[in-house]
Amino acid sequence: MNDAMATMVEANDPGLSSMQHALPIQILMPADITNAVAFLVSDEAKFITGITRPLNAGFPVR
């Protein structure tokens, strides 16, 4: 999450609503990133190696 996005989230900016409509799922929150990182460093992800995995809430689908 970049600084501008974090500021919008903290301020509950109405612009988040329009951003939400552009995504097939909800907007990623800091906890979502934390959970993804926790999974990737866990034993459950031991076979996931050598890739770059974007966390983009499906934005390229739109």
TrEMBL record:
Keywords: Oxidoreductase. It is an enzyme of class 1 (oxidoreductase). Its EC number is 1.1.1.-, 1.1.1.275. InterPro entries: NAD(P)-bd_dom_sf. The keyword Transmembrane helix does not apply. The keyword Ribosomal protein does not apply. GO terms for molecular function: (+)-trans-carveol dehydrogenase activity. This is Carveol dehydrogenase. It comes from Mycolicibacterium gilvum. The lineage of its organism: Bacteria, Bacillati, Actinomycetota, Actinomycetes, Mycobacteriales.
